[in-house]
Design brief:
Elements (H helix, E strand, L loop, with lengths): L2 E5 L2 E8 L4 E2 L3 E2 L4 E9 L4 E4 L7 H10 L7 E3 L5 H4 L2 H7 L4 E4 L1 H10 L7 E3 L5 E3 L4 E6 L9 E5 L4 E5 L16 H16 L3 H11 L6 E4 L8 H12 L4 E8 L5 H15 L3 E6 L5 H10 E11 L2 E2 L1 H13 L5 E8 L5 H7 L9 E2 L3 E4 L4 H18 L4
Parallel strand pairs: 6-7, 7-8, 8-9, 13-14, 15-16, 15-17, 17-19, 19-20, 19-21
Antiparallel strand pairs: 1-2, 2-5, 3-4, 5-6, 10-11, 11-12, 12-13, 17-18
This protein binds flavin mononucleotide (FMN) and fe (ii) ion (FE2) (2 copies).
Flavin mononucleotide binds next to helix 8, strand 17 and strand 19.
Length: 394
């Protein structure tokens, strides 16, 4: 692990986790990740912004020592999750005079999780500043990106925003800056989808709050630093908006291919109409790919056999993700093959109560066993309905 210069006085100490493949036992990490800490050297005082993930603490402390700094005045904790606060106790061991600077909510998170004494904290409010001499740290509370405790730290003199999880991407790479924008866009979108999407209205507020700041660099706590902030700010504006794209996500499973036949037919009809279709067989799906598709899509089709009176459990995962991530989806349709019973469309509706006001349910296609001629007609009708819902003026 090494420290690298963003500017002469601001170093990135990034714990690059090349091999990690799952975050929080939940989020797949095809590109690995990094836990970024930043050392800010002022004319009078030094500050460390966030630390590292507990398993990487020994290497992190070695890299911090290798910078040659002799004193540390502040450890800024932007967010209480352990991937950023986990190494604070170890930093305090080598710099016992340093104070942990954070907001009240984050202090609470840290004291509940880590052995950091009450008198080691300086609690800051929204907008408050702390001087390092020639640099001023300013704190902006930005709750819910990722937890209720999250804040950003800004240095006006260097026009740099330390945004913690906000704008982050799970990428393990040697690039200090986001030079490979295509790679970073994909990773940042995956990150947004799984971590940020439920908080779209907060994100819109935070983007407005940060808009007056002059920003040359955004330094997040995961992934590379943005030296072209407009790149990620514009993407976040688009993702967090209520404007959906004319895209259809089909989340499906089939045990005996009855449902697959309908999904294949529907896919063809939608493609004939020029609609963009993203299909996910939900058995063993990469939830990152699936949720990434939910960021933009106007329409989600759940296609599933009935299993023990409900949707197949792998499709339940998709329904659950749509529900908890509160995607901007406008239209939902259900395609179902059953053996003997039930109205699965109502069951699925009941599983999406948070989206009640925003969703319009299209007429479901519920089929006993193998789809027959009439069922294919019903799928033609569904394809028309999806097209019209997405092209209201036509
Ligand atoms: C494990 C299992 C549980 C099932 N539970 C139900 C059920 O509760 N109600 C029902 O109507 N059909 C049930 N079925 C029948 C399937 O829904 C039916 O065979 C359907 O056509 C399968 O569609 P597929 O070929 O797309 O898998 C069940 C089938 C299996 C294998
Ligand atoms: Fe987090
Ligand atoms: Fe994080």
């Amino acid at each position: 692990m090494i420290a690298r210069e963003i500017t002469e006085d601001i170093l990135s100490i990034s714990a690059i986790d090349w091999d990690r493949r799952l975050f929080d036992e939940l989020v797949p990490l095809p590109e690995g990740t990094s836990y970024n800490s930043y050392l800010v050297k002022g004319s009078e005082k030094n500050a460390l912004i966030d630390t590292a993930y507990p398993p990487m603490t020994a290497e992190y402390i070695a890299a911090l020592k290798a910078t040659g700094i002799r004193k540390l005045d502040y450890i800024i904790a932007d967010h209480g999750e352990q991937d950023h606060t986990g190494s604070i106790p170890a930093v305090l061991e080598i710099f016992p005079d340093a104070m942990v600077v954070t907001n009240a909510k984050c202090k609470d998170m840290i004291t509940e999780a880590l052995p950091v004494a009450e008198d080691k904290f300086i609690v800051v409010e929204d907008g408050q500043t702390i001087s390092l001499g020639d640099k001023t740290l300013q704190f902006f509370l930005t709750p819910w990106v990722h937890w209720p405790d999250t804040m950003c730290t800004y240095i006006a003199e260097d026009k740099i925003l330390f945004s913690c999880d906000f704008f982050g991407s799970h990428v393990a790479g040697s690039d200090l800056f986001a030079t490979n924008e295509a790679l970073v866009e994909d990773a940042a979108k995956r990150y947004y989808a799984e971590i940020m999407m439920p908080f779209r209205s907060f994100i819109r507020q935070h983007l407005e709050k940060l808009a007056p700041l002059q920003i040359d660099f955004i330094a997040p706590s995961h992934g590379p630093v943005y030296s072209r902030p407009a790149f990620i700010l514009d993407l976040y504006k688009e993702w967090a908006s209520d404007v959906a794209k004319k895209e259809v996500v089909i989340a499906y499973v089939s045990m005996y291919d009855n449902t697959t036949k309908m999904v294949d037919y529907l896919t063809d009809r939608l493609m004939e109409k020029g609609l963009s279709v993203k299909r996910f067989n939900m058995v063993g799906v990469d939830t990152g790919q699936f949720t990434k598709a939910l960021v933009d899509a106007s329409t989600v089709v759940f296609a599933t056999p009935t299993v023990l009176t409900g949707p197949h459990p792998s499709v339940v995962t998709g329904i659950y993700l749509l529900h908890v991530l509160k995607a901007k989806t406008k239209f939902v349709a259900v395609v179902n093959s059953y053996g003997w019973s039930g109205n699965l469309a109502d069951r699925i509706k009941d599983m999406l109560p948070k989206l009640k006001a925003q969703l319009r349910y299209l007429d479901p296609v519920l089929v006993k066993g193998l789809p027959k001629e009439n069922d294919y007609k019903a799928l033609d009708r569904l394809a028309d309905e999806i097209y019209l819902a997405n092209n209201p003026a036509s």
